[in-house]
Write a structure and sequence with these properties.
Radius of gyration: 32 Å
Helix content: over 70%
Number of strands: 4
Structural class: alpha+beta
Mean pLDDT: 76
Shape: rod-shaped
Number of helices: 11
Length: 307
């Protein structure tokens, strides 16, 4: 074995630290990658949660409709509601029809008019909530309501379509944010890699002198920075996963408390499924790979400028 082969063999065996770790691996770069990975994981998880929520809401809205019966001069509101209910229940494809009482209808107006306002003298409409098993029942339902001038059908499908558009917009925004985070990671790694090459320039020149190719030298930096990237990305991803798990258990805790709570509603909305955690793991791996590839391309481009 000649001198060159001995150098390469010992380097691959790890007995000669060609690149001292203290000049390549810095706590600052590790922290930056961990923060970037945390932001990427939060973005992926938030987009997944938005998709889950929109899917659940769309499923509920697609099978539900409401009939609004307004008070009209010369009409008895209770009689109109009863006649409409009896007619609707005979339509095939409607599995449930429930009339909101006057008190329940007034409670629906409380968020806008206040709970201390006496609505007894106001013409508060009555609502009939419907559940449909067959979408074809909508045409029959409209035909029935056309004969009742003070009744109107509220179709939620348009709102469901808007929810779908919101979900797509959120996914696109999440993709853009993720791309920007990865770009910032590449720039940080590129800057750190150039500093590492400059700090180890004598070593790089010796490796060139004994015949090492640029691809071999780049692989040395790539292995170092892949380790840094994977460690930082893993830290950021695990912290994000723990945060989502904390939100989930906090939501269950608040949800178990008596009475409605805005905090309980907010926390229970952060319910990430197993697919979301897999997507976060994929984001961690992607961050580590971007770190390694960014380091490799930076080293190769830097070495070409070294005489």
């Amino acid at each position: 074995m000649n001198f060159r082969e001995a150098i390469f063999a010992n380097a691959f065996a790890g007995r000669i630290p060609i690149l001292p770790r203290e000049t390549v691996i810095g706590s600052t770069l590790l922290a930056v990658i961990a923060i970037m990975s945390f932001l990427a994981a939060l973005t992926v998880g938030a987009v997944r949660i938005a998709q889950i929520s929109v899917h659940e809401w769309r499923g509920e809205l697609a099978n539900e409709m409401t009939i609004q019966v307004k008070p009209a001069e010369g009409h008895d509101l209770d009689v109109d509601v009863k006649n409409i209910l009896d007619t609707v229940q005979r339509i095939s494809g409607i599995t449930e029809a429930r009339v909101y009482t006057k008190e329940e209808s007034e409670k629906l107006l409380a968020p806008w008019l206040g709970s201390n306002l006496d609505l007894g003298s106001l013409p508060v409409p009555r609502l009939i909530r419907l559940k449909l098993a067959d979408p074809s029942a909508i045409s029959a339902l409209r035909a029935v309501l056309d004969t009742v001038p003070n009744a109107a059908l509220n179709d939620h499908r348009a709102f469901a379509a808007r929810l779908s558009a919101i979900s797509k917009t959120a996914a696109l925004a999440g993709f853009i944010i993720l791309a920007l985070v990865l770009l910032a990671t590449v720039l940080s790694v590129s800057f750190a890699t150039r500093g590492a090459v400059a700090a180890n320039r004598p070593t790089v020149e010796v490796l060139h002198f004994i015949g090492a190719r640029d691809s071999y030298i780049a692989s040395l930096f790539q292995r170092h920075f892949f380790g840094v990237g994977f460690k930082g990305a893993l830290i950021g991803g695990l912290v994000a996963m723990l945060l989502f798990i904390l939100f989930r258990f906090s939501g269950r805790l608040f949800g178990a408390m008596a009475g409605p709570s805005d905090a309980a509603f907010l926390l229970t909305s952060f319910n990430l499924d197993w697919r979301g955690y897999l997507e976060i793991a994929a984001a961690v791996i992607l961050t580590a790979l971007v770190t390694a590839l960014g380091s490799r391309f930076t080293v190769i481009s830097t070495l070409r400028n070294i005489d």
